[in-house]
Amino acid sequence: MLLLWSVWSVTLLLLPPPPLEAAEDDVRAGCSTAVNDLVYIVDGSWSVGFSDFDTAKQWLINISSQFDISSHYTQVAVVQYSDTPWLEIPLGKHQGAAELIQAIRGISYLGGNTQTGRAIKFAVDHVFSASQRGSVAKNHIAVVVTDGKSQDDVVDASMEARAQGITVFAVGVGSEITTSELISIANKPSSTYVLNAEDYTTIDRIRDSMEQKLCEESVCPTRIPVASRDEKGFELLVGLNIESKAEKVPGSLLSETAFALSASTDVTENTRDIFPEGLPPSYVFVSTLRLKGASAKLTFDLWRVLSKDQEVQAAVTLAGRSRSVTFSTTSVTEKEQRVAFKGFQDLYDGKWHQLKLLVRPRLVAAFLDDELIQEAPLDPAEPIYINGETQVAKKRGTDVTVEVEIQKLRLYCDPHQSDRETACEIYSVVRRSVSSEPNRGGRGGRLQLRGRSTRAARPARTHGFPRREGKRRPAGTRREAW
Ligand SMILES: *[C@@H]1O[C@H](CO)[C@@H](O)[C@H](O)[C@H]1NC(C)=O
């Protein structure tokens, strides 16, 4: 019997995976399923050295691990360069991670001078354009890893790359690099697209940051104009058509407009249209809203993403009775994980407030009007199902819309936007900041506040420990580790 059972399980393991077409509808979307053409352009000049070159290869393997390597999702190419560029791995040559890892490990070090501009031009002219799947790839990303100053010009080649819609990251390793050169190689802003490592032995320290950035690039195609810069993210008032579905009402300040949702408003859209590539592993959820009357007492999802089977993929739930805010997300070990934050008294007082959640792979922090209310650990989350609907202001577990006024509803992909996104649209915050800094050049309130409050580090208020709950889910659904 035991033997029969193990034969049966081995057979199960050997069965081929279901064809993609059939499973299409049930696919989870996230970084791993982004459709990228990703080209690594790696410095193989003499200054790097054999052992550091091996480290660089391992680093490339590491930062590729969040992607599903296949002709459907991410394809990787590697160009090594010194005096001339050398196509080590063409796009789409290797299907599957194991094969790709082996191929990267097998690259042998060239040695020579550093002609970075030439290598970038080569990637633009011959590598991206030779992708077997043509224009299917949604994102074309180049990562240039170099340890020194280029002996040729990098500006023209980099401009050409951008003109072709290729996003270029520049990774400088060691002290010989010229920052201005990295800045001209990379896309703008350089705070996003230029990375630095002290040397190859510490390059592992910028792994998380590189992975996060590659992931943002893959799943956050849209940009929201904020102050003087464009932030990658999702403007949900527009994406979910709230502007055309709800009535316009005055916002928190004279200069602001908000939207009043009534019981007959239905803000529901297909998740596939809103988050076609899923959610990034880190993001900032920001909403400026006013809860009046019944909405201050009900339990409802301010924002939620449901699967086709009505399972919560992500949600921010408000509960006036318990004065709490609950964040729900997926989990690699359970069906759903929830973190309940207490201490949101003010949110339910009938006035305008800004609610902000900073979501990181292992941590979620909740803010009200710029003050940290609480933070709590998270289990690793899984990519979300995008086959269901994304909704706003729905009573928990129902399709009933709760009456609420919403002025802002955004998801920023860069977690650092949490520091920049201040609650300057909230009157009490403006007042608080002004009174704490009286005579500052006598300029208009809002502008000076913007800069000020990003630096303002108020002591964190915490209110007890958050509660975590979760439903177990069958084992065996974990993603394969590298
Ligand atoms: C690659 O990842 C492994 C496992 O996390 C780590 O031990 C190693 O230091 C990383 N290497 C580089 C060069 O990033």
From TrEMBL:
One of its GO terms (cellular component) is cytoplasm. Gene3D superfamilies: 2.60.120.200, von Willebrand factor, type A domain. CDD domains: vWA_collagen. Residues 1-22 form the signal peptide. Keywords: Collagen, Cytoplasm, Extracellular matrix, Hydroxylation, Repeat, Secreted, Signal. Residues 435-482 are annotated as: Disordered. Residues 37-210 form the VWFA domain. It is found in: Cytoplasm; Secreted, Extracellular space, Extracellular matrix. InterPro entries: ConA-like_dom_sf, ECM_Assembly_Org, TSPN-like_N, VWF_A, vWFA_dom_sf. Residues 452-476 have a biased composition (Basic residues). It comes from the Eukaryota. Belongs to the fibril-associated collagens with interrupted helices (FACIT) family. PANTHER family: COLLAGEN ALPHA, COLLAGEN ALPHA-1(XXI) CHAIN-LIKE ISOFORM X1. This is Collagen alpha-1(XXI) chain.
